[in-house]
Amino acid sequence: MVSIFYRENGRIVLSSEVKDLPAVGVENVVWIDLVEPTGEEKRAVEAFLEMEIQSRAQAEEIESSSRYFETDDAIFANTNFLTPGADEYLMQPVSFTLKDEVLTTLREVPLRSFTELQRRMQVNPRQYPTGFSVFATILDQRVDLDADMIELLAKEISQYAKRIEGREDIDDELLLDISQMQENAMVVRENVVDKQRLISNLMKSTKVPDALQNRLAVQLQDISSLINHSNFCFERLEYLQDTVLGLINLEQNKIMKVFTLVSVFLMPPTLIAGFYGMNVRLPMVAADDPNSSIWNWIIILGLMALTCGVIWFIFKKKKML
């Protein structure tokens, strides 16, 4: 799909046909947005701009020289845009090309920041005289969305902190949830750092209009604060993870302590029961007096209770209970 935004009589008009490009002229086109374009559409745009548009494979390369580079008459920039998934954030690569003040974008999925900007362009056409201003606005919106994601992540972390403080559902599932949030925090930080590198390169470029330098500087400051917030979120998640592991270990230690105490309590009675269970003549056992067996039971049970009480007293005195 192709969306072509061009100036006409003080307005910005939208066209979805690449065949309209020759009639419009390069001097009037502001933005060409390619979303999963066909080979024919991509070749038509390349012929119109007299340059080659980067492929998706090139947009996904991680080398710095591939993420941003310039030629004599064009700027090529690649960056990732985050989209929220069911449990994680997904990175969607977007390729930007600026030539003759015309912005060309190539992407594979719909993005909210692009859709909102396209509506605003037709409402306030004077705010977007060139492709550079459109590009700067896209970066503005992207930084705002990244800030919203970090803010949402911070709120989720606070909720998990309250759950841990209240000892609610401290189990392996909570630990896995925290681990997934750590992964999300790393993805968001990686995405923000990628924007920082892109904007830094743009500020160094001589092709970017001077009027946009202050705007890019503000974006760079915002991104620096977002990196600090994302680092804080990650550190807080590490703290919560350590706390959950500590609580789980405490619970396991309590369980093992109970089993140990039960074993210790039962050792003396088991010894006495085993001793009197031997098939030999023992004290307090009268073979010719059947009535004496009742007292013998009472005495033996008393010995068992006495040994348990002594063990309990010793453990209590040593503060092991």
List strands and helices in order, with pairings:
Blueprint: E1 2-8, E2 11-15, H1 21-24, E3 29-35, H2 39-49, H3 56-59, H4 64-67, E4 68-70, E5 74-84, E6 89-99, E7 102-107, H5 112-123, H6 131-165, H7 172-204, H8 213-276, H9 292-317
Parallel strand pairs: 3-7
Antiparallel strand pairs: 1-2, 1-3, 4-5, 5-6, 6-7
Helix pairs in contact: 6-7, 6-8, 7-8, 8-9
CATH topology (level 3) name of the largest domain: Beta Polymerase, domain 2
The level of helicity is 55-70%
Number of spatially distinct domains: 2
Q: Please, what is the oligomeric state?
A: single chain
**Helices and strands: which structural class?**
alpha+beta
What is the assigned CATH homologous superfamily of the largest domain? CorA soluble domain-like
Mean pLDDT equals 81
CATH architecture of the largest domain: 2-Layer Sandwich
Give the distance, in angstroms, between the N- and C-terminal Cα atoms: 72 Å
Largest sheet composition? 7 strands, mixed
Describe the structure in your own words:
With 321 residues, this protein is an alpha+beta fold. The chain folds into 2 domains: 2-249, Beta Polymerase, domain 2, CATH 3.30.460; 253-317, Methane Monooxygenase Hydroxylase, Chain G, domain 1. The chain has 9 helices and 7 strands; from the N terminus they run ββαβαααββββααααα. A 7-stranded mixed β-sheet has the order 2-1-3-7-6-5-4, with helices on both faces. Helix 7 packs antiparallel against helix 8. The longest helix is centred in the C-terminal third of the chain and has 64 residues, at 213-276. The model has no long low-confidence stretch (mean pLDDT 81).
